[in-house]
Amino acid sequence: MLDGAVKDAPESPAVRDSAGRWSYRQLARHSVAFAAWLRRQGLRPGDRVLIQLPACREFAAMVFGVSRAGAVLVPLDPMTKAFQLRMIVADAEPAIVITAVPWASILRSIASVLVHEVDHVWAEVEDLCSSDPEVEQYENCPSDPAVLIYTSGSTGTPKAVVCPHRQIVFSCCALTSVLGYRSADVVFCRFPLSWDYGLYKLIMTCCARCEIVLAGGGTDLTLLSRMSETGTTVVPIVPSFAAMILRLAKREAGRLPRIRMFSNTGAALSPAMIQELSERFRGARVVRQYGQTEAKRITVMPPDEHNERLGSVGRALPGTEVWISDAAGNPLPAGRVGEIVVSGPHVMAGYWRNPEATRTVFRRDGRTGRVQLHTGDYGSLDEDGYLYFEGRRDEVFKRKGVRMSTTEIEQAAMDVAGVEAAAVVPPAEHHDLAIFAETALSASRVLKELADRLEPAKVPASCHVVDELPRTPNGKHARDEMAMLLKRSNG
């Protein structure tokens, strides 16, 4: 995919970070040199290469270089904790580990192979790049694993989704087409390349022959000026990042970048936030999406329908299928809530070295032979095939005999003027239903406003006003951390 971009647009800008910018030709040259470096280390096709770095041009080149060498990329966020690293290294068994100085000592105490510091590696790669090395590009089979993306489930134990070349290529090409990426676009990526949201954006820009700005290291206060400076046109967001952008935009009225599209994932945006983003950024389209690493993206609201069906997260990607299933596995009619089930060329190959979890989630239909992804998420379809997301498995629950989800309560909270962000913690043994909110309002005022918007059973028993919600490295709500805070506060 990178070589295709080089053939079509060799001198077009490909990737930019705080230190500089590469064209597609330069990105490709560095990826070839990195593949040559890997071969010199004795890397064999199928070996795993674990890379723990912030998003940068070097990391981008490594993504493609690992593929050229026929190896499997294991990208990790620098924020990954030591106890998680220990489990991941034992599970992935990497042949090569590359990281930066701050994390090298931790990985050296865990990994049984040599840990390479990126500065030393890249000095050698630059030497190879200047000598224009000859490297035989490995011909990957479409079913070969390209990337292992580690996710932590409700148990906290990391497990890796096996992402083959075929599924990655299909997903990236389909998304580029549905979202309408253009060669003139500049995609501002705030997310790490260890998260599929960031990694796929890098590959999608190759499909569109456009530019990606890797902006994870910048300060929050300069975000909008950085977008203006780079000519940003597309911004991938999650709700917490969207809230930050809006806070900054209120201070920068009249000097905002010309964004044509925001694409959201991670959790639902409130209708009020969607409207404000569109109004403040001169009619920018705010595209709602739903997905899981296990199938990358499952539904997308067409950009030209961004103001329609505001409760929906869109339609299935072309060439894929989404339906709703009851507990017995039977399809449900339009309007009925059940488990979201998916099939198509984007469904990944299962979990790495975890056959039990694979059988549970990736089920093969005995009649058709198709692999069906049972997401564990709940939702419904309307008569036209648009999906309405209700909540994830651990976010849908009953209270006082009423079925509800964290999503609907959080959306009600975001409808309250003055609430910047909100996260709901479902009831458990040590606490009742609770909500955490970033707001200048009092806790009692938030609860009163919620009582005006929700059925009585859905109004939280308590509200906790915080300066900032606890979040995971990927910007999602850290509900486990909030549940622990509740448990401690309740003795």
Automatic annotation (TrEMBL):
The organism's place on the tree of life at top rank: Bacteria
Domain AMP-binding enzyme C-terminal: 408-476
Domain AMP-dependent synthetase/ligase: 5-352
Signal peptide: none
Name of the protein in its database record: AMP-binding protein
Any one GO molecular function term: acid-thiol ligase activity
